[in-house]
User: Fold these one by one.
Assistant:
Number 1:
Amino acid sequence: MNFNWFKLASPPAFYTLAGRLIPILWGLTIILLVTGLYWGFFETVSQLGGNNPQKEYYRIIFIHVPSAWMSMWLYFVMVVWAAIGLIFNTRLSFMMANAIAPTGAIFTFLALWTGAFWGRPSWGTYWDWDPRLTSELVLFFMYIGYMALHSAIDDVRRADRASALLAIVGLVMVPVIFWSINCPDPNQCAALHQRSNLTKIDSDILFAMLTMTFAFWAYSFAATFIRLRTIILHRDADSVWVRELFTNGGR
Amino acid sequence: MKPRQQRLIFIGLAIIGIGAASTLAITALNSNISYFFSPSQVLANEAPQDHVFRLGGLVTTGTLIRQPESLTVHFDVTDNAKTVKVVYTGILPDLFSEGKGVVTKGKLGADGVFYAEEVLAKHDEEYVPPEVASTLKTAHAEGVTHSNPPSPPAGANN
């Protein structure tokens, strides 16, 4: 097999590939979403036990935890593309980072928003300046800052480089968010937010939660590729291949 | 040296620098964060005087008293070493109960009683049905599973 991966770094080639992948990703998203939600609503207990006697409202974790995971994961992926763009000067990498940012920001917002609604009945407050909550809020501002900086600079190539640097600096938040509740000694990190431990979760709850995570993951790919195709068309608007695409009634 | 290699080194150094910064930040978070004070710290006068601060620990079993005809409640907060009395007027959160974790915000009175303005309930990371939870507990009691049973108050950083 002698497949040249670098061909995919050219916007026209990737434009076509992304167009083919999007329907598959949408299908995957819907299947996983329906499975995850069905399992989360009908195959899990309606009342938790032990030191965590939450009632029906615990089911928000099927949205909350996957969005929080995606918010951190997408930031990491965004920084990887931004760094590749800076090092190799590949246009498509910057576009990829650009396309990921809004989806990441949406998931961060969703994690904060669902967390607030869940926190009111279980903790007794919508918001508290707990280390976990605060660091997740800062991550949201990093996404907003990245997008704001990019749109504030008119020259696209300068905007790409400047916002990529900002994104790399913001990477500091990802491990901080993770360890804000998962520090090695539980007595050392005082927080309102509970620690995370997948081994202490009932298998049905875990199944629904992981299925929802993969659904959000597939959605992230689909949404990013749609946005990426728009960005490619926008930036290559003057090129021959885009003109041909439209004169041929392209797909 | 090619410009691409220079950029690679530059980005690599930047990421190493950020890694170092985040390690330092996490270390600082672990050792200094005073999101709340434990009863031991409060009794050792480590908590600010005449200022609002958070007190965290476990609600001592058997100390919850509800004043009749009012929303005022009295309870003790402990870190299994020291205990502070707390008074609060208001609605308690759903997960608040004796023996469970709690974070309260308020001021320490001259009489040594903590006057709370806000009471938040803490819970642990176990997401299991009630019957599984009870078997887990007996397993803990028999010492079958690892770790220290009645989960320690997260605020007991001595």
Number 2:
Amino acid sequence: MNQTQTTGCYYYPSRSQHIQCSAVINDEQIQLFDNQTNSIVSVSNLDCSFESPLPGIATAVCFADGGRFIPDDINFQWPFTHHSHGIAQQLEKNKLLILASVILIPLLLWFILYRGIPAIAVYSVGLASPSMVEAMGEQSLQVIEKIALEPTQLPSEKQALIQQQWHSMLDDLQLDKKKFRLSFYQSDYFSANAFALPHGRVIVTDELVILLKDKPDALRAILLHEIGHVQYHHGIRLAAQATASTIVLAIIFGDLEGITEVVLGSSSSFLQQAFSRDMEREADKYAIEKLIALGYSNDDFADAIQALQNKLDEQAQLDESWLKYLSTHPSSQERIDFARQYTP
Amino acid sequence: MDTTTPPVNTTHAPSPQIISQDRVKFSGKAGEFFGIWTVNILLSILTLGIYSAWAKVRTYRYFYSNTSIDGHSFDYLATPIQILKGRILAVAVFVIYSLVIQFFPTFGILLAICLLFAMPWIINQGLRFNMRMTRHRNVRFAFAGNYGEAFINFIILPIASIFTLYLLLPYVLKRIDQYMHENISYGNKPITVNLQGEKYYMAALITIGVTIAGLVIFGIILGLTGTAMGIGAIDAENIHPSTIIFPVLIAALYVAFLTLVSAVYQSIIRNHILNNSEFEDVASFKSDLKAVQYAMLLFTNAFAIIFTLGMAYPWAKIRKARLLCSATEVTIYHGAIAIIDTAEQQQSSFAEEAANVFDIDISLT
């Protein structure tokens, strides 16, 4: 009969009392003896359970009554544990696997965050009902209105003119006029800008209209860009992606604390910017394609971006705009070049 | 290994008789933990996050089992299934919350109010779970806080402190720490905690002093780099390498600064709490964590993590645990050998039952 011996500490069930002892283990049972070789415990192997082994930590044996024995030797191997027992520990000690993890983790994370989640987001936008998107869009508008928008100061003739242009463009594109609505607002916060809400409302600021007052074609190009955002469901996708990435990072790195959260937090916002840069390109492409399809020039789009960039440069003289490189849009020159050199 | 443990069943004079007086020992190794950490993350990714519950248990067990007082290590008792249930619940709540916030921003307020009222319960549940899952010498810890007190300490008082221009804040923090610690018991032995408000006001003043000093330095550096940037950066078309390096540098400085400030406050408060807590007749504590040393450690940890793109995380975590343990002295008295684990008998109440079902993980620091 195989017999193994070791020493360790026995903890009595449900109390702080404990005793140094030696253990004798054979095929049927574990026996513990104190210094005077009096038997303290004698338990059948069948009534023992073992903690899952961890690198560098002695594996304790737990008895059915709650008593426990911890060997002094951290490398002590219990002879009759099941074969699959300790598989996690073997993996954690495997140098090759550790090396593989170091290489695979960044690759997998990149794949999940930049490929997997966006792909799922594209698929899942189909699941959102139109009424839900409508509610989402209108509520977002209410919030933005409170924070950053003022009633428009544009003369009503000017508004009517642009609306007319908008409607004929929607007709040409065969888009639903009930869905795609154009609104004007004055905004110091957004300055010369336009944005689209997921349910099809496009907001144009007075400042943009004034900036492009001599370039109606450029304004049309920007409106097409915004329609592109709506058509590709960019708003909803972005929201879904932000949520999904936060969850993924939180689950995988669940137990990080303090500083690392700061790092993670900033990396996820970088991530969001990368997402939206891709989306801007998509909307740019949409605008350029439609311009050509409707018989206008792809240069209109380039002109619009150039005008916006000139305005930005002017403002940049005033404030510390070096942070603008973090902006959600791709570099202006890149977009202008893309528009000018576009071939269908 | 166990040379410090004296024989147990000897007769002793009336307490308090000191059995042992020693620093807390931490025996974790960075190399060992690196393996556990990376392999667990890989497995978590490959199992779409499910293994993360096992990973958490293994990480906690590694740290608990490597922390020992008087030759006896701590045990972390939570099972992966408990953690998994808690995580599924947390993810579900988070998904619902973010969907509501992003799709219906105006309902967000209503939801925030619901969350406000659920908060004390969630905090209690988390504390209760963590204590029950911590064991030393076969006796579990327990937490006995109630909803009413938690509501006052975590909701009412912090809100009230806003209306006093935060003058009340140190007192509120004291109340929170008092609540979180005085409800702990080790088996059948409750803890006694006597925290003093003055200490919290002192800590706040020192922290504010460090913050102001830091902001002045930070401002000078920011001003210098800002002007350096002004020359070439307006032109968005040619992004200079410096456009990327400077923001990173400023972010790093910001992290370092936060680290320093929190280290100062945390070390003062930690010392105060431990020096004024004891399990009468069982154990008393002494903490002499030095603010500068702790700040240096957190600071170098943060930098190591950032510049190794996270690879230094296991090393940083081990280092921190080692420093905190070595700054803590525990005196064990004779009463420590006669503690009874009462966790089994308490399971009648709903709160105790619920605490066993799943983990609600809330980090309060």
